[in-house]
Fold these 3 entries.
Entry 1:
Amino acid sequence: KQAAIRALGAELVLCDAAERFDVAARLCAERGATMVPPFNDPLVMAGQGTVGLEIFAQCPETDAVVVPVSGGGLIGGVLYWKTRQILSEEVDTSARAAVRLAAERQSLRAGHPVQVEQQRSVADALVAQKPGDVCFPYVAENTDGFAPVADADLLRAMKLLLLEGKLLCEPSSAIGMGAALRGQLPLRRTDKVCFVISGGNVALEQLHRLEDVAL
């Protein structure tokens, strides 16, 4: 990811994941720059959610959608379009992936966004410590639920997608499939399910980790 960013000519400022928003805010203040949130913004959320529009335009018979979850921008966006009645109300839009950071699950129990401690995971794109307050109302009111997915399940799902599906994705994107392999999704065998595979940033060393993963 770092190499790709630099190749596009952007300045890359490295920091700890838990400090990234504070660092970004400081840089914006120093340089007069504009912050573009990765998820907690209504326009960003609506834009990310257009994946839902594409799914149901191409596959209107879909029974359930399983979406990777971190800060809630992607699933919040999908649910945003659903609440606007552009998507069918009969569709069970399932948010069932919440890696080791249990922010979304704890927030649902509390009824408001809750911050959790930063943890390391192979799912380096799912590191939000707290759901976005813009996204959370859509998630809390409309989602079907969440399932925790361990790193071992992520890697197993990633390997299955690579070998059987011929699809190379990053670990974070395999989280929904990881939940399915663990039997954590209450789906029927006859359901038509769409798993959102939302990223392919994979380094070679990550592929080497799959060699000893049993399917």
Entry 2:
Amino acid sequence: MTNKQLNFINNIASACKVNEHYNILPSLTIAQAIKESNWGKSTLSSKYFNFFGMKWTPTCGCEYVELPTKEWNGFTYINCKARFRRYYSMTEGIKGYYKFIHSYKRYSNLIGEKNSEKACLLIQLDGWSTSPTYGKSLYNDYVLKYNLLKFDCEYNYVPFSFLFTVGNVYELQVNLYVRQSPKGEAVKFECLTENGKANAKFDEYGNGILLKGTRVTCKESIAIDNQVWIKIPSGWICAINDGKNYVI
């Protein structure tokens, strides 16, 4: 990730925080802003703070800018001009997006949704995009890749432990010690499950260390201070520590 990309994410996240009362997940908002505006590089976003390509209507309560675009006429795409919503700050642009979501009944299932993966799929099914891979791309290529879930947690939309669902399979991003309990003593290599042993090494004291890339099944998750621990068949591992994802 470049510094410009990191700044873009943080700036959009800050605008989400200001507008948090609209109750839309920041991870969804940021992912869409990245995807729809090409990291804020589009003319519509860089000059007019419309990061989502939203069209203008007489009742939308904002000004418009007329820009060239392509429209589908039922047979092919044609070049034309269209009116798009215009804003004067990033905060105002994010507010406009939230008001857009709230103004259409078909998007009402996004309001209060706490599962980012589900929200990404829902906005596709609600009609935002006709691409059958749009929702999957939002979640995998943006939410997960750029760790946007942390904003859902930091802004208290969801508890940190909510990120891990019992029964789901996750992948270690680093080598991790297995513990007897959250923040507890290390589990000896010989006490790991057979599958655990097959995907682990041990240190000079015989403690088991699961290797990066190992896939584990979540049996339970708990948030403690700035950490999230998940229970796996062999014991407990630290999945998030101070905002850093060790397990995805």
Entry 3:
Amino acid sequence: VLVVPGDAVAVGQVLVRLDARDTTAKLDQAQAARAAAEAVALRASKDAARTEQLFAEKAATPQQLDQARAGLDAARAAVAGAARAVDEARVFSGETQSRAPFAGVVSERRVDPGALAAPGVPLLVVLDPQHLRVEATVAEDVARDVVVGRSASVEIDGEPAPLPVTVDEIVPAADPRTRTVIVKAALPAGARVRPGTFARLVLA
């Protein structure tokens, strides 16, 4: 695990490396199988060429020619299958590194070296402080007049003035218990706000 909470990371930066011995071994096996298939295909190609020449000289039967051509087709198909196996093994081998999907800051580290990684289980949490959104619960009767694109403002403790925002998403379903609707708006870039900060969405 190459980062800790608070580290700034660049897009594509390696954050976690998984043990690659198993995937590396499978890639080596797939490459060896492809090399063997290519050798068989090369021999089949030469055999087919010789049989073609013998058939032209009437020294080979049509059955022998058909067998030689069938053997070449089968060898070429085996090469194609082996190549696909190599590509698949290479993809798995490339997935042994977890990279940052965007530039941001590590907010959580959920694994330590030696831990077992499993599909669907987060290893790290990375946030982008330049692209935050405010989510507000708005009463149903007020939400009826709110539309995407409407201007609003956000009040945040510590900010000297309200921040101008534009509503960019309205959850279509209301909460039947609280009779509220969630309204979302992107905060302007450069706002000095931490994720999770309490904010008030002001709809004039």
